[in-house]
Fold these 2 entries.
Entry 1:
Amino acid sequence: MQNVKKYFTEGLIQFTILLSLIGVRVDVDSYLNGYYSPLEINDGPSSAFIQTPFHSLRDNWDGYSVHPKCPELDYFFASRRLLGEVRALGSPARFPTQLSAWLVQVPDRSEFGEPPNSTSSSNVSAGLSSESTGEEANDSDLLAEDESCSTVNARLRGRQEECQTEPGPYPSTGACEIPKEEVELLNGQIDGDEAREELVSLTQLALSSALEQEGLFTSGASLACPEDPRPPTIDIHQHWSHFLSLPVSEFDDLDPLVPQQLSDLDADISSAISQDVSLRDAMVTGSTYDMIPPRGGVRTLVARQPRGTLFQLESTNSSDSAPGTTTGLAALPFTTVVNGTSNGTLSHSALGGCLDEAVFDQINLLGLEGCLDNMDAQLLGNLQGINPRVLGDLDSDSGLSLESSSRGPTSPGASEVSSASSSSFCEDEGGATGYSSEADSLPSKGIADYDTTWSPVDLSESVWHDHSYSTPAFSHPSATTFPHKAIKQEPFSDEDDDREDYEDRELSRDELRARALHVPLSATEIVSMPVEEFLELLEGRGLSAAQVTLLRDIRRRGKNKLAAQNCRKRKLDAITGLQEEVERLQAQRNRLLRERQHTAKALGAAGQRMEHLSRDVLSRLRDDSGRPLTPERYTLQCGANGRVVVQQIRRPGVASTTAGGKTDKRKKEKKP
DNA sequence: CATTGTTGTCATCTA
DNA sequence: AATAGATGACAACAA
């Protein structure tokens, strides 16, 4: 399967390229960034949501809220990502359905005069339907396991070639007279989610145990939709059928075939594309409103959007990977795949053929809780063109919108917006009153002009996102009145009230202290600048001790504030994961209880049958005096060696009266 | 007015 | 040793 995944992944990338060549716009960057990020989890230590041993404990719960920092999950993420990509790109996940359509036609070999047991005879049907129906056991017995791949695939190929000679695209309604149930079985088998995961290696399906196949068929048959509109392009069927007909061992050698196959396909597939859709757009529109997690209504769309900003922007500290993105993606496939619970959203409507639709479906599949961060980050990317003030207003709660550590030169506007959106700090920076610094004792001076020798230019690339730490540009002279309470009490004209109050809210306590000490840097800058730069700032600027202390405090508090917010978010995620785990375990417990009940019932029935059989056997036996053995006095015991022994029941009263002339134990053995 | 949730901060530990 | 990050605890605040 690994080779198959590799093949699919590479092939689908080329397929995407081909789509773009034929004019279909595919936003590969955003798409791949979102999906490949799990592989870049460990890129940097400075990204958010890392170093959380707390989460490593949760990584065992079937993937709930997998922490991206865990390196041991890389392999898992990689494999899941590959599977997710194959699914997300849609088309390959569809072709098994098309393959099944061709498979259906072949069993009508009576028209071709083929012997039913020939090598090219009913491949999967011989192996599968015979076991499922129990009527053609001979065929299935003849099918040795070691001839799995090549034999089955050769049969597939032969049948497909035969079917290609059929005139109609779906001759199942015509010449082919395969039993309908078999058709449904085949369709269902390949339409099922489990089968879709195993879609490439049909041999595994063919060689599965009879029980598994039965279950698979029954489950898959319900999924089969005979009325599904099939793609009208027969070429695609043929190509995919031919593609599938290759033995698994040849998949490694298929790489050179990919361009050719895809080039043959592109025309038809392009017609199948219904519209020109950016994958990123699809992700955003499809997820932002649908994926609101049921967390007691704590989160809203408005509140979540800046959160995505945080993760996306903070990632710039270390690498291109977005921690928030990785978090979401890490959790998602894990949850959906490992649990294997194909809920309602997992069952596709087999509309097959449309890549974009497949992508949308997959997005819906992936769009569970963990995907929020990813979606939000991408949503923010799309919203960057919107009025910054609007975006800032969206940040109603100061919550996790501290995209402070991001330092994107390309997004100064948005960052200023975020900084301007603060509405929480104005009342007071906080609860902890133990805080004290030298700056607190300083008298509030009028804020002088900033020292022009301090060039904030080199810090212009620093983060300006944290709403809690305003930029000097938003300073208000009256803010020098230190008590922040006084800020709210300042009279404003009606016209300027909103604006000035809005600006004053940006002055955090640290900001005010910094101004009081003539520190011409915003708290955001102080917090977000690299440590080397910060140390240089402390040492090379000739700062006073008070200024140095204040700068350190500001930086420490700012960092800790971010850490606290990340920590709280992780805690909430952990709680959510635990709740889901509890639900899952409860469901498992209920299932086990039902199984136990069923087993007890079966055991009781078996005991009754045993009792009847014992009575029957005993009634046919005679003791020394020729009387029939009664179950009241004798019982049958099954020995370990398979022998059945008649044993006399010893009862105190009976033994004392009847044991006189008899041997204690008379054994009559009979062979089973 | 009490309760609850949010947020900032401090102290402490760990890497 | 210094730094950053994580997290429990506390307090202030808002709803």
Note: DSSP finds 29 helices and two strands in chain A.
Entry 2:
Amino acid sequence: MVTIKDVAKRANVAVSTASYALNGVKKVSEETRRKVLQAAEELNYRKNGFAADLKKSKTQTIALILSDLSGPFYSELIRGVQDIAVDHGYDLIACNSLGGQNSTAAKFLTERRVDGCIILAHNITNEMIEKSASPAFPIVLLDRQLERAHTVPIIVDNKNGGYKATTFLIQKGHNNIAFIGGPADSHDGQMRFEGYLEALQEHHIDFQSRWKVTGNFTREGGELAAKIIAAQDERPTAIFVANDEMALGAMEYFQKVGIRVPEDISIIGFDNILESKYTAPKLTTVQHPKYEMGALASHVIFQLLDGEETEKSFTLHTELIMRETVIDIMTKLRG
Amino acid sequence: MVTIKDVAKRANVAVSTASYALNGVKKVSEETRRKVLQAAEELNYRKNGFAADLKKSKTQTIALILSDLSGPFYSELIRGVQDIAVDHGYDLIACNSLGGQNSTAAKFLTERRVDGCIILAHNITNEMIEKSASPAFPIVLLDRQLERAHTVPIIVDNKNGGYKATTFLIQKGHNNIAFIGGPADSHDGQMRFEGYLEALQEHHIDFQSRWKVTGNFTREGGELAAKIIAAQDERPTAIFVANDEMALGAMEYFQKVGIRVPEDISIIGFDNILESKYTAPKLTTVQHPKYEMGALASHVIFQLLDGEETEKSFTLHTELIMRETVIDIMTKLRG
DNA sequence: TGTGCTATTTGAAACGTTTCGAATAAAAGC
DNA sequence: GCTTTTATTCGAAACGTTTCAAATAGCACA
């Protein structure tokens, strides 16, 4: 393997000079610069980034840790992070936390391979996060409520989102409203449920536990949940589904078995993933500020890295996206 | 910043001993091991991964370089790569090549920050790839035909895929078949087009250039292309669209303006993205072996890393997925 | 010719690990 | 009790850079 020493030797200069030349430091004469560059070229020299980072103790890179690199939800988030990172001249790498404590993610968290990181992954423990954070290694947490030194959470107001969605349904005259939730350990899902509950309560509608069914945030989960709901004798007139993917699955199922959306049953989702505006009918949902979340996260990281003060935590808000899967119950009765 | 030296000092051992203890090397006594571990714990010691990698000159990580970290197409590919990588005890990081020569990707390519990499990004130049590849740094290229030492391409037989799609259309009685292609610099798109051409030729159907329109592989591009096609006086009875995303966009457009799919116009896509089976009607398409591609790429990297011989290049095949957007023209005429 | 500059080049010391070979301590063999 | 073995521990040399402080060269000026 060819190192900077080889380059220096071939160019007949000291390695320090070679280093300066290679990095375009001004103090080296034009001529030696050329010599060094040429030598590097001839030897096909490639610098060892680690060695450099080690010496500089700065990586100019931040990591984005996701529990799953794939999935439609993340695209926009990643774009948000990325845009801001490049603005700051930083590199972004994404890695996943599949495998928990032994995952790639863990390695980045505990081995100082990046200058900071943004985490959206629930299989990384709080403990691990607390241990890793330090002034030189700020962590931004998405969708996780954990305020610590050098750790700032950004959450979206899921409860209010759930409240909005449910209230909307109620305003449209529905009072038999089912809820399809996420896995029990999902904080988001839980909050969305609470919003649902609150709206119900506010309008003096009793919560019926048989109408709360949980899925796993996937399309298939939504199908299954829909099936369970459809199987009951009394059917709700509307469903608030805790994420769009499940909502799409549910719609798919209803259509398959001849239950019309929204004529027979109204559906409102959550997240506003790209796909939801392309379905027929188009999904009514709650906007999750994904891009903004990513961008904000990035911003905060750089503020922390610069030693600036930031808010202790951030809350982003949601917005109702009215499309075609919720119908006014009056219209329905007349229809 | 606390280093292994601090740990060693606090535990009253030599740094070498501390290192052994921390890495679980057997030759250190149980007692000192405990002492060291405790000291590390107390100081909240976190090792510097770079320093370690530097010394070991091995990173145990491979990179996956994509031109865009987002996008539905990549999910499955990533899963494929990931699955195999973890099997080999390697870490995977994804980074993107947005920004070409100055991108994060470039840094990984030229600075030995990983042991090997898989590239699916057309804004990385061939030259750069050739320069970077070496026995110690194998590169697997997806959808790019570039055979060099330590560089193996994996391509899918796009031409044959295009041929199959088009032939299928012809067999269903269509002979006015339009083509919606990708951007000019897309090798895949070009190959798919050639397959289309070949099928046409084989059945003595003249190619009509006004029926070739190009999009940018996005949904919006598909919509636009569909619009252009619909605007012509004579309309084709079928379209072969070079990727599913555009096909969905096209369908969307046709449905919007009251052109029925498949009754008025048949559509066949390419890729078989997840979404395509959830549309109404379900999209007929050509299966692109995304997962397999990722998994194979991973496999090849590890073979190369082990110094084993591999094929010079790999070709993966496609498969027709018949669903609902192609109709037999006879049915149509009768209907 | 010597003095003082500036511009360039250099050697050596880091950066934080791992790992080799040697040193030491403890145990065992006789 | 002395030698041999084995189990631990240790010191020092890497790994490939960057960067500081010092050295040298080149030049102008007196």
Note: Chain B has 13 helices and twelve strands.
